[in-house]
Amino acid sequence: MNKLYVVGIGPGAYKSMTVEAIETLKECSVIVGYSVYVDLIKEYFPNKEYVETGMRKETERCQAAIDLACKGQKVAVVCSGDGVVYGMAGLLMELGAKEENLEVEVVAGVTAALSGGAELGAPLGHDFVVISLSDLMTPWELIEKRLAYAAMADMVICLYNPSSKKRTDYLKKACTIILEHRKKETICGFVKNIARKGQEKRILTLEELKNTKVDMFTTVFIGNSQTKHIKNQMVTPRGYQIS
Ligand code: SAH
User: Fold this and answer.
1) pLDDT attached to residue 55
2) Residues of the chain predicted below pLDDT 70
3) Does residue 37's CB lie within 6 angstroms of at least one atom of ligand 1?
4) How high is the pLDDT of residue 68?
5) Ligand 1 center from residue 97 Cα (angstroms)
6) For residue 199, which atom of ligand 1 is closest to its CA?
């Protein structure tokens, strides 16, 4: 059986990769990925064949990886964070369905919600939801509905893809929807370039977040009604009674 691995490389630093991800990449002969992610790992895995593609070439990149794996090469497709969370794993399984001799295996990685969460403190200490603000493949009306229901349910909300060159006001729009159900003092935070050069973070209120511009390399956290700001950390209590 030919194997194709989907390896989540974590947020960006070598030390944020799992041991399993490192070992899998060491064993593979070909590494396929978006050039930004490939550049993050290349120096640690020399002597590999790299197949790099630009953004929005996902289907071509996945098909190329499948073709190589079907020829018997040990291939890994690398994704930032985790390969399932807005990553390539599902597409590889869909495209690979017609190949009888191919098995697609996922090697979990640390997704931005977790690595960014750790930078802020403990924002995801209770029930949370992850929502992408990218409407490239999801209708904006559905994104609005998910935001509204998550806000109503008092879930901690973690936003991926909060902005792009074309979608500069989406975070503002999302905050406006959430503010219909949440207080403007709700504790929020964001982390930019997690585990990469230029990492930045900030804790602020929902009202302040609404008027803040972030870029596409940022992950945003909106606390629930219990989330606190303690010693410059964002903390969502699990609910333990402390005296
Ligand atoms: N598979 C990735 C998510 C890809 S979607 C994962 O599991 O983390 C791309 C979005 O992920 C970005 O817009 C941003 O919101 C978030 N993201 C991924 N890596 C990040 C990093 N190093 N720093 C900040 N945000 C990141």
Assistant:
1) 67
2) 55
3) no
4) 95
5) 27
6) 23
